[in-house]
Known about the structure:
Blueprint: H1 3-10, E1 21-23, E2 31-32, E3 38-48, H2 59-76, E4 80-90, H3 95-111, E5 115-123, E6 127-137, E7 152-156, H4 161-170, H5 177-188, H6 194-199, E8 206-209, H7 214-225, E9 228-232, H8 240-245, H9 248-257, E10 264-268, H10 270-273, H11 276-280, E11 287-294, E12 300-304, E13 307-308
Parallel strand pairs: 4-5, 9-12
Antiparallel strand pairs: 1-2, 3-6, 4-6, 7-10, 7-11, 8-10, 9-11, 12-13
Helix pairs in contact: 2-3, 4-5
Amino acid sequence: MGEFELIAKYFSAVGAKRSDVITGVGDDGAVIQVRDGHDLVVTTDTMVSGTHFFANDDPRALGHKLVTVNISDLAAMGAEPAWLSLALTLPEVNEHWLSQFSAGINETAEYYNCQLVGGDTTRGPLSLTMTAKGLVPRGKALSRSGAKVGDYIYVTGTLGDAALGLKLQQGLHQVSKKHQTHILQRFQYPSARVALGQALRNIANSAMDLSDGLYGDIQHILHRSAVGASIDVQKLPLSQALKDSCDNNTAYGLALSGGEDYELLFTVSENKRGSLDVLLSPYGVAITCIGRITGAIGKLELKKSEQTFSYQPQGFKHFA
């Protein structure tokens, strides 16, 4: 099977069928109508075999995850997902793998109302790169640079489950049978908090998604906003599955530096905090206040029972 036959069979009609796509897969470029009064948000993520996933991982889960990690970046900026591009490098044409991988992309793109509009395929070591484009009302995009001293720090959902799922898959940690499905689902099939991200446009001062672990990711907000932060580790939202599977310090470590949570981290000023629960309650996602923004520029303080919590960060870093 050649490149163009591969594209036609597996990627020519992937995702939702959007009326704003004039020309999609199959031409030299996509032609898209961009809505008046909106800004375009663009993000790109790459997943490489042996670095981000195992070569024998379920290809359907890989397709799902590739879409979700990109959509999660759009969610963190309050954007509405719209269009996807895929750059796929394959060592060989494996039709079973391709059918499952494209199915994973298709069902996830449809769920988030996205359409695959183009990309590239080439031969080489297995590597998956996706670019996601979304729309946000003009001037309303959330960023990492708006945190203010005194802001309350929030996260959505629970933290650390995906990292435990990786350890379970690697055979490095035991999890009881009743929790295994939940833990593996959080690692293999993450969710992007799209609706909640859009609801935060007029509430949050800053926001980002959690991909490399809370401890490392919040440093980006501190740097971009020229602020510090104080976090109480006892307030970190931990699932019952995580608490049943780990001692406290291991659970805190996974929540702080495990990564791949794809939850939202955001800050809210005092005067908007009171309405937060009411505004976000329709979205069915728990939010937890874990600390405050401080004036100690670039300093992240971890506390436990009002005492300093000593912690050696373990977050993932490329080229470290």
